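We close this part of the discussion by returning to an individual protein. In the encoding step, the backbone of a single protein was reduced to a row of integers, each denoting a local shape. The sequence in question and its structure tokens are set out directly beneath this paragraph.
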Amino acid sequence: MSKRLSTGGRLIDRSRRIGFSFNGKPLAGHPGDTLASALLANDQMMVGRSFKYHRPRGIVASGAEEPNALVNMGEGKRFEPNQRATTTELFDGLTARSQNHWPSLDFDIGGINTHLSRLLPAGFYYKMFMYPRAFWKSVYEPFIRQSAGLGQAPTERDADTYEHFHAFTDVLVIGGGVAGLLAARHAAEAGARVLVLEQTAHWGGRSPVDGGTVDGSPVAQFIDETVSALRQMPNVTLRTRCMGAGVYDHGYVLGYERLTDHLPYAQGPRHRLWRIRAKQIVTATGAIERPLSFAGNDIPGVMLASAMRDYVVDYAVSPGERIVVATNNDDGYRTAICLRNAGVNVLRVLDARSAGGGALMDDARALGIRVDPGRAIAKVGGGKRVQTVQICAQDGVGGALEAVKCDAVAMSGGWSPVVHLWSHCGGKLLWDEAQAHFRPDPEHPPLGADGSGFVRAAGASNGALALGDTLADATEAGKAAAKAAGFKRRNTRAPVGEAASERPLEAVWLMPQQADVGVRSKSWLDFQNDVKVSDVQLAAREGFESVEHTKRYTTLGMATDQGKLSNINGLAILSDALGQPIPATGTTTFRPPYTPISMGAIAGEARDEVFQPIRRTPMHDWHDAHGADWEPVGQWRRPYAFLRGSETAHDAVIREVRNTRAAVGLLDASTLGKLIVKGPDAGRFLDMLYTNMMSSLKPGRCRYGLMCNENGFLMDDGVVARIDEDTFLCHTTTGGAEHIHAHMEEWLQTEWWDWQVYVANVTEQYAQIGVVGPMARKLLDKIGGMDLSAEALPFMAWADGRIGGFDVRVYRISFSGELSYEIAVPASQGLAFWEMLISAGEEFGIMPYGTEALHVMRAEKGFIMIGDETDGTVIPQDLGMDWAISKKKEDYLGKRAQARSHMVDPDRWKLVGLETTDGCVLPDGAYAVGEGVNANGQRVTQGRVTSTYYSPTLDRGIAMGLVLHGPDRMGEEITFPCTDGKTYTARIVDPVFYDRDGEKQNV
């Protein structure tokens, strides 16, 4: 059984005990414990169930590489799933529950999957759920959804807060072990600003556990002195509990800091997401010990040798009383010696190497520990914890030789450098045959914009596993990083002297050779996802020769593990099955984040009203006080309609449309995007962005334009006004202002970087008000200040002037088909100008109208709406807007794409108007059907409704839609069977329902 040792425990405070619970059972630990160490101290060996077979799972590791000990943490508003017990610091009142079982951890119905394993091989889900097709919705999909995931999704609102932090530094060091600390010190002494991130709460990494000396002093003393020196440097920032989550282009790094996870619901932000820009990055992320592959290596009580050493030294916890150590390298002896010195009974060390180890083996034997060279574990016996070990020869000849009763197994399969961060941004890897691992290739580092490397690895993460090699490598990395960041060494101090290494100098890869093939097939590679040696071999036999394909077929290294423990062993098995060396097989892709980060940290402060700040026009409060029924449009709130008394929104829209058509309406159009495009090359720049010619536009005139993306699809539209020879004002849709601004900047910065063009988004600097209807000119003439006659300001012209004492810019444009003026004033004067119009317009029957009346009137005129008539697959030609495509200019964005065969296909659906035969309103998005069925057995579709409204002007339903050969089928009737059980019949008509000749807007 596991227990707390009477002595030791360098990280715990034995003078105090704190309470916590696991699966409702009250337990106790000490300050400084992790949840994992506290569970082991209370002899809680089984902590969860595996994903696929629901096999019992125990703690395997002691750090972020832990695949099994994932628990549901907290309750209610502070509930969070999939938290690693090995990295969770114990605090008073902590509550945790195990995952992926029902009804309990000890008795799990899902455990039956273990006995059905022959029916659930690798990739079974790709084969099992295909037939019969009728079972998909009723049987397969509900089963998959019920089985998916490990933890439970929170059901209550998160009570904690989170924040983001931006940092800029010359050298960023990720990892606070001896390599990271020494690299940071050398970089800082050269004058560079240095930021050091360490994901745990303690400095030094593994060195305080593994021991060793530096210049004759214990390595722990060297760590303390180095940290102390760094803390006294004003150009150094040290952060513990902060993980380097991902490395991206141009020296951009995400850091994930856990601020209060170790405190009992403390005030203040819980997590902080660091957004770091660094000139140079040093990854000193250490190495991870590999497990060994043998039957039963997943039984609770089987643990990495280094993790077992950590629990003994750091927390005074022994995972067992009778322990067998299995190793293929010298490091296993270190654990055996540590256990024996702590008073734990080490039964024997099984060394897979026929000649055994070196000096450490001799030290183990001197302590009376039995060492068996050339031996391995054939099988571990037990159910919910280790009970026996069957021993075989490493070559497997002769079967199991003997069985030994024990309650824990320590396994060491060598060390793998943590190369994840190095690989995130394109760094290449080398296979190190001597130490059987991949390490960073210094000739192919991640490259910056200038073509030089901006990331360098140091210490164990660079393959330097011996302490002396680690220190030398870190010294070189720190100096090189400072120099590359533009700093030369200023201060001098005595160099670090000789280090007596306590790290393994040798780690030889040996394929698992269990006693027989049947036993070997039960050797586990991925503990979390239940991937066996036989699964990878099956994938190879079925043609999945790419490691990426094998990963997805078997789920090896997926989920939270991401290849930390399973990667190298899986690659070795796949390589063996394919008859090729490991380097030829390669590695899977390492993607950020290194370990999962909370959704709250990603969002930061962006929650509630800050999640998407509501943008308000200057007239927002006036609208709210006068019955506005609000509608979200992008990040803005716009009045859908202005309700009066007890009327419904539908009634209000009818009133607003009829009043605008008969008298005068007022529209708040301030949300429309307004982009200033200025410079000598502004005209030709806009010619490339819009389908029609903008450079020929005269100052004082406006032109409607369509904008397509490089794939030829419509992305925005709006009116462009030419202000002067070098200046244009581009109006965009409400939701498109930021997007189109970014679109313009992207092309200017990446394609036409040498053009003299400047773009500014001035959307919020102006309030824009539409004065619309046959009485609009009379209203504005009454207020006075400008000549707004048709002769002075013709349609599609603009002019600056003064109206009622306000400085204005008036655009003679119309989206309703009525006489219309859109008037822009400075945002600070928007409300006053609006209220003046309302007051002066009373005698003309003025009414404000909202977005729905706007839509109805534009549909009556057959004007398109981006987002309604377009869905990302529509081109101008589909909408009958060939007239808006210039025949003069040679090119524009999307022109060549629109010439592709499927773009000129005569069977593309075209825009038409639709009138129901009984005058009712067609359902939005309804599809028209034709004769016959398609290949999937579904009825052939021949069109769809894009916009549909009740028209108060025509007193009937009107709609626009895209229909197969629509313009050639005028007068034909088509049917729309809908989900409401009704079938609608509509006649294909011209999309312009009202004032086809445009007489009303041109008065």
Confidence is low (pLDDT under 50) at residues 501-521. The chain has five domains: 3-124, 162-287+417-500, 288-413+508-585, 614-891, 906-1003.
